[in-house]
Structure formats: structure tokens, C-alpha cells
Amino acid sequence: MYAVIKTGGKQYKVSAGDLLKVEKLEGAVGDTIELNEVLMVGGEEVKIGTPLLPEAKVKAQIVEQGKDKKILVFRSKRRKNTSKMNGHRQPITRLKITDIEA
Description:
With about 100 residues, the chain is mainly β. It contains no helices and ten strands.
């Protein structure tokens, strides 16, 4: 069984036992959270929401709270001898999908 969930403005296809890297969610390591924005549940019978399935839930456990790899942003203006470099590390949460309820 698999599900398509929406969190952090992105959509992910998940199944039980998957490890997933998403935008930062509130909670401590070891906490169990429920993701209620389920767009689709598949398996033997496919259910598609309009846009969400109201009775479907995905349960996940927080494995890690941390930061992603550094992204370098470089800007320059041609013929002006002007350049600027910035770096950014996005906070992320790693989840382990434990259960899908349809």
C-alpha cells in the first residue's frame, strides 16, 4: 500500500517503512506525528481525493531534526565588477513512515 501526501508545499509518494526528508516539522526526535493531507491512497483499490481524502492518515516517526546541505547562491552583474555570494542551509526533518490508514 502506498499514499501520496502533501507537506511543506511538496508532494511525496510514500509507503510503510520509507525514510523521507521533508521541510521542518514541529516535534522532537522519537515523536509520532500524523500527516492528514493525503491526496491519494493506492494498493489493491485506488482512492483519489478531491483534493484530499478526509478519512485517510499517514503516521510517521521523527528520526532526525537537522539541516540540509549548503546551497550556494552567487549573483554577479556583467561588466560592473560586482558579485555577491550567499549560502543557505534549509532546516529539515527526517521521517520514517510507520502506518498508512485509508
